[in-house]
Amino acid sequence: MLAQVGKPAPDFKLPSTKGATGAKDLGKEVALSGYRGKWLVFFFYPLDFTFVCPTEITALSDHSDEFREFDTEILGCSTDSVHSHWAWLNTPREKNGIAGTKYPLVSDFTKETARAYGVLDEKSGAAQRGLFIIDPEGVLKYAVVTDDNVGRSVAETLRVLQALQTGGLCPAEWKPGAALLQKT
């Protein structure tokens, strides 16, 4: 099943860095079903130890408390191994690392999940930059894929999340607290 807005998000069960305190306890599986009852920002990035990726990962982490205020969890994914993720999570930010990241990363080493979400670059084997917002019932509500050279906006992700959570009609440039459109 391919990801499609308005339909159930493709299921996944992937090894992660969740709860790991060392390399020996890496790989705890994380499944989409584990996020039932909460909103989920599930995003793909190309590769660990690259240039644009750490700016996105750390920006999302730096705003993770804001996402939690909206009952939303964050989960990052690439086709790298959990061991590569762990090494990157333990590399200081000033050395192009992502130390201090406040949410888990999952490994789609088989590439099945990236393929299901339509972000796998079959030639390179890496995921493209895809960001998906999944509602508490597991329905995909938002999907965006960008060029590998362009990082995503945390502010825009928060704005879209809040718009989706209103359940109403949000016009272009809608901001939290602004009026919703009324059906006539």
Tell me what you see in this structure.
This protein is α/β, with parallel strands linked by helices and 184 residues long. The protein has one domain: Glutaredoxin, CATH 3.40.30.10. Helix content is 23%, strand content 20%. The protein has helices at residues 53-62, 64-69, 82-89, 112-116, 154-166, and strands at 13-16, 28-31, 39-44, 72-78, 105-107, 129-134, 140-146.
Instruction: Note the beta-strand portion.
Output: 15-25%
Number of self-contained structural domains: 1
Determine the N-to-C terminus distance.
36 Å
**How many beta-strand elements?**
7
Silhouette: globular
Number of helices: 5
Q: Return the average pLDDT rounded to an integer.
A: 96
Protein topology:
Elements: E1 13-16, E2 28-31, E3 39-44, H1 53-62, H2 64-69, E4 72-78, H3 82-89, E5 105-107, H4 112-116, E6 129-134, E7 140-146, H5 154-166
Parallel strand pairs: 3-4, 4-5
Antiparallel strand pairs: 1-2, 3-6, 6-7
Give me a quick take on this structure.
23% of the residues lie in helices and 20% in strands. The protein has 184 residues and is of the alpha/beta class. The strands form 2 sheets. The protein has a 5-stranded mixed sheet. A two-stranded antiparallel sheet has the order 1-2.
